[in-house]
Amino acid sequence: MSATTTSAEAVARVRLVRRRTARRGRLIVAVLTVVLLAAFAARVLLGDYLVTVPDLVRVLSGENLPGTSFVVLDSKLPRAVGAVLAGAAFGLGGALFQTVLRNPLASPDIIGIGAGASAAAVAAIVLFGVTGGWLAVWAVVGALGTGLAILLLAGPRSGARLVLIGVACSAALVSVVQYLFTRASLYDAQEGLLWITGSLNQAAWPGLGRLAVEVLVLVAATAALAPRLAAAELGADSAAGLGVPVRGVMPLLLVGVLLTALATAVTGPIAFVGLIAGPLSRRLNRDRVTLPGAALVGAVVVEISDYIGAYAVPETNLPVGVITGAVGAVVLIWLIARDPSRRRA
Question: Where are the transmembrane segments (predicted)?
Fold first, then answer.
């Protein structure tokens, strides 16, 4: 067999694997979309107040149904939409960090970006009495400042270095929050505690509209930067050989910071979503990166967790961050236990 024939067969096998991977990726995205739609429908239609599909259609068409219109438009639907937007933003932001830095622990909620938003928001509540929409501004500034500081201190070449610096910054910011709670009044402490836990209780249409536009813009930016992401997966040296220097991936990390910051400003830091969405989508896609899959996994996790938090305990509405924290810890342990590299060691 000639070398030319062998090379042609190798190329054909690579193309076949790529086609199969692409088909599997599309299938996973389709399945996750169906699961998300089912979870969305359950969040809107089921629960303590049942809403029929005909009534939902009538409400969405503008008809006023006493009781039903208020429950759907002011409670159930905003929470369901907020869960999709925030979950997709957290999931996509986490997957960008993990892929670029080639480290499954390099998630924005682990390296302190959420803690930066929390510290800024609690400081605004306790020290300056800030409320309403300005809290979101403080949260975005805190998250962006923390993310940029960590990136500048660590540099994009070492994912392990960035994680260590991020964990240290997160611990320091948590200490700041705890100190602020010692100075807070009972009312301010309750508001701050609810905010830093991560909740959809305050989801409202103006904030959700802004978040929807912001997420769409950042998704478009991610799509435009996708070639850099593919090169970054190969490592800094290989990426530089392909014409993508280390600094060339910095915009991807900035997009990840923005996704996390803007979602946190609306819902607070919902724990573990950014950390587990990427690894779960990878496992579904046979260890291949799929950013749409990560975004959909994040949205599904937050949507289902919010439904569980609302109805699992009678007469108690648990913040969604409580549920994702409990579930995320179990999922993380499961992912580590089933890591193929661990079994080979």
Answer: 27-46, 80-98, 110-130, 136-155, 162-181, 252-277, 289-312, 318-337
